[in-house]
Amino acid sequence: METMLIIGIAGGSGSGKSTISDLLKKKFGDDVTVIYHDDYYKAQHEKTFEERTKQNYDAPEAFDTDLMAQHINLLKQGFSIECPVYDYTIHDRSDQVKTIDPTRVLVIDGIMVLAEPKLREMMDIKIFVDTDADIRILRRIRRDVNERGRSLDSVIDQYISTVKPMHEMYVEPSKKYADLIIPVGGHNLVAMEMIENRVRTHLF
């Protein structure tokens, strides 16, 4: 199999990581696969819904990063994986999986991906999306209320209790590992052109 280019995209919740991932997927189609750290949240089937709502989902231990690293290695070796699927409405991993086949370019998307050494060392390009906190929280409110079935109060409570402190403790410091820091995410056309040119060089 041809060499796989692995791009890690980190940044705070609502920073615009997925906008960049989506743009790369749209631009290069089947040559790009995106996997999300969020899908590797640990299963919590044994907990009640109420217990699950109180968990800290913004700390490193909330993720099954070992499984994600194993899956990335399998993709690099040319094997398909059965990726877990996380259901935000129930705060738990769903019973579904999605088959992901290896492609020439793999994008790893998640708030913690640059904070995790075992993921970071696999990346050829490390990107941090740097967006103001007020924009991030507004985007998060809109997304979680409209798409994930959350109440406004629950989103605000979660932001104050875990999202903000964990961002300051883990996510923001991981910026130092980035090869490229992108203000305002996918709306930064100069940065997007640079990334697209690097991917194009790899593919063609």
Q: What is the element layout, followed by pairings?
A:
Layout: E1 5-11, H1 17-28, E2 32-36, H2 49-53, H3 65-76, E3 81-87, E4 92-100, E5 105-109, H4 117-120, E6 125-130, H5 133-147, H6 152-171, E7 180-183, H7 189-203
Parallel strand pairs: 1-5, 1-6, 2-5, 6-7
Antiparallel strand pairs: 3-4
Helix pairs in contact: 5-6
List keywords for this structure.
single chain, alpha/beta, 5-stranded parallel beta sheet, 41% helix, globular
Could you please describe the fold and organization of this structure?
The chain is α/β, with parallel strands linked by helices. The chain has one domain (5-203): P-loop containing nucleotide triphosphate hydrolases (Rossmann fold, 3-Layer(aba) Sandwich), CATH 3.40.50.300. The chain has helices at 17-28, 49-53, 65-76, 117-120, 133-147, 152-171, 189-203, and strands at residues 5-11, 32-36, 81-87, 92-100, 105-109, 125-130, 180-183. The chain has a 5-stranded parallel β-sheet, covered by helices on one side. α5 crosses α6 (152-171). The radius of gyration is 17 Å and the shape is globular. The mean pLDDT is 91.
Describe this structure in a few short sentences.
The protein has 204 residues and is of the alpha/beta class. 41% of the residues lie in helices and 21% in strands. The longest helix has 20 residues, at 152-171.
